[in-house]
């Protein structure tokens, strides 16, 4: 068999421009064009059609007989004939197709077959590509090249001679792996369903890698079988390729992407080749000629990237009343903590903006409204580019207490209480600035009454019940809570009731 050549740079444009020249090449070389159809979402494909050809149309088949017997079929030991051919000082396997017919073992110097570029039986082709040397010893699960060749040959015979693989058994226990290899080659080939190379591309997303933001799109073959044979060639310097178990991840720094940005990537994968040998000698087998070299198919793809915009709405509400709060100021940072800007809530309590090239934002309140407590939390929100991101945040009002301390103003003869002594059971109403009643408190044994927590601001205190022998205070007393957590102390003194003086007793 003569030298093998690969022609890999005849592009579609050349074929269209010069059909006559291409037809001449096809006639000389009996080319079989290999097409790979790529289904790619939103991708423009530039196809290169590799061509495989040979100079000589004949190949001489040789045979050696191995004295090892690996398996029995239907109880009968199976001889081990190993067929091969020589090319460029190398020896490569040949597999016989017609079980029961003569092979190279019947001729001292072998015999000649006519080489055909195509194997008409697609299922046979799939089985062959599961054989050695297309699959490694490790993948086949065998220990030696001799075992790999035997398993490959017998798997082909199972298909071409319609044998039952379940009638196989190892000659010795240590050859159980050979039986398994035969079955796996056959079943994998039968179930391969004429694989077509299809590629899918993921939606664009953002990832943080070592502190830098990247746009990510992942490409992977729909049939994972091709992962062992494909290679993605790195595109522009600014982008990078990361291989994982399912495919490849294309990473582009977000700050390099502008309108109309796209990258060109080349995908190479090895396309296996096997040739058919038609016997020139009557009564001798046709053969499969394995080719160790693989034709490199290369496809160029244009993959678009775009700036990812996220619509963000932050809504600020009162935690107790659920009403909108105006004038709350926020600092917003991107996923790398770079400041995007400072924004204030409007009269609807909203901040509305579009952010670019970040998958999450950090939101921190830096200025609260006068009557509200500053929220010191920093919120980390994940963003989605397909719908509006609405985040609700809540503030609590500044609150405090009013503490009333009720005491006697002077000594009371009727109660015996001295000046500045606490008065118990004196009751007060607490009103806000609009004279709305908000609390009702009564002094304890220490003369103290404390309100519930109420918002900062001005209030009015009205005494409405006091002790016997003390005057009820008529006027409103003003009190103010200024800061959060303040306790405003108000001391109120009570006057004694007027005690009528007794007239002196006089004699007659």
Account of the protein in words:
The strands form 8 sheets. A 6-stranded antiparallel β-barrel has the order 5-8-9-19-18-10. Strands 12, 13, 14, 16 and 17 form a 5-stranded antiparallel beta sheet that branches. The protein has a 4-stranded antiparallel beta sheet with strand order 22-21-24-25, with no helix packed on it. By secondary structure, the protein is mainly β. α3 packs antiparallel against α6 and α5 crosses α6 (176-190). The protein has helices spanning 12-17, 19-29, 122-128, 137-140, 145-160, 176-190, and strands at residues 4-7, 32-33, 44-47, 51-54, 58-66, 71-73, 76-77, 80-87, 90-96, 111-116, 168-170, 199-201, 205-209, 212-221, 230-233, 240-243, 248-253, 262-279, 287-304, 309-318, 329-333, 339-344, 350-356, 360-367, 378-382, 389-395, 399-408, 427-431, 437-442, 448-450, 454-455, 457-465, 477-481, 487-494. The chain has 6 helices and 34 strands. It has 3 domains: 57-306, no CATH class; 309-395, Immunoglobulins (Immunoglobulin-like, Sandwich); 399-494, Sandwich (Immunoglobulin-like), CATH 2.60.40. The protein is rod-shaped. It is 12% helix and 43% strand.
């Amino acid at each position: 068999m003569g030298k093998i050549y690969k022609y890999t740079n005849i592009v579609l444009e050349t074929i269209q421009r010069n059909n006559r020249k291409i037809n001449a090449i096809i006639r000389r070389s009996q080319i079989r064009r290999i097409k790979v159809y790529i289904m790619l979402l939103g991708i423009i494909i530039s196809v290169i059609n590799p061509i495989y050809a040979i100079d000589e149309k004949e190949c001489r088949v040789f045979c050696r007989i191995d004295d090892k017997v690996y398996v029995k079929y239907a109880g009968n030991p199976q001889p081990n004939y190993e067929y091969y051919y020589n090319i460029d000082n190398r020896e490569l396997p040949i597999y016989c197709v017609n079980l029961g017919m003569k092979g190279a073992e019947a001729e001292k110097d072998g015999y000649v077959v006519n080489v055909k570029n195509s194997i008409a039986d697609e299922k046979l082709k799939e089985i062959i590509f599961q054989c050695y040397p297309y699959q490694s010893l490790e993948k086949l699960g065998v220990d030696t090249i001799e075992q790999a060749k035997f398993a490959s040959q017998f798997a082909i015979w199972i298909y071409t001679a319609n044998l039952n693989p379940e009638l196989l058994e190892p000659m010795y226990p240590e050859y159980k792996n050979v039986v398994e290899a035969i079955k796996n080659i056959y079943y994998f080939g039968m179930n391969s369903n004429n694989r077509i190379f299809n590629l899918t591309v993921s939606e664009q997303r953002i990832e943080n890698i070592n502190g830098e933001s990247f746009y990510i799109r992942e490409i992977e073959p729909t049939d994972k079988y091709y992962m062992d044979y494909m290679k993605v060639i790195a595109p522009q310097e600014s982008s990078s390729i990361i291989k994982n178990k399912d495919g490849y991840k294309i990473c582009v720094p977000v700050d390099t992407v502008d309108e109309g940005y796209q990258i060109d990537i080349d995908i190479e994968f090895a396309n296996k080749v096997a040739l058919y040998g038609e016997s020139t000698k009557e009564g001798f087998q046709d053969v499969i000629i394995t080719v160790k070299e693989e034709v490199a198919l290369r496809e160029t793809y244009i993959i678009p990237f775009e700036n990812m915009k996220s619509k963000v709405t932050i809504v600020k509400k009162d935690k107790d009343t659920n009403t909108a709060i105006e004038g709350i100021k926020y600092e917003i940072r991107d996923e790398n903590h770079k400041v995007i800007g400072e924004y204030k809530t409007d009269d609807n309590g909203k901040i509305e903006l579009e952010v670019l090239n970040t998958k999450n934002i950090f939101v921190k309140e830096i200025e609260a409204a006068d009557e509200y407590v500053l929220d010191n939390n920093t919120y980390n929100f994940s963003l989605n580019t397909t719908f509006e991101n609405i985040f609700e945040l809540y503030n609590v009002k500044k609150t405090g207490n009013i503490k009333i301390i009720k005491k006697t103003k002077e000594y009371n003869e009727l109660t015996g209480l001295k000046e500045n002594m606490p008065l118990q059971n004196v009751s007060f109403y607490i009103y806000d600035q609009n004279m709305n009643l908000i609390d009702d408190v009564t002094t304890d044994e220490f003369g103290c009454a404390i309100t519930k927590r109420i918002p900062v601001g001005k209030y009015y205190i009205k005494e409405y019940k006091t002790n016997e022998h003390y005057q009820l205070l008529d006027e409103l007393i003003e009190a103010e809570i200024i800061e959060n957590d303040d306790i405003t102390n108000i001391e109120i003194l009570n006057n004694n009731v007027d005690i009528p003086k007794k007239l002196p007793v006089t004699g007659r």
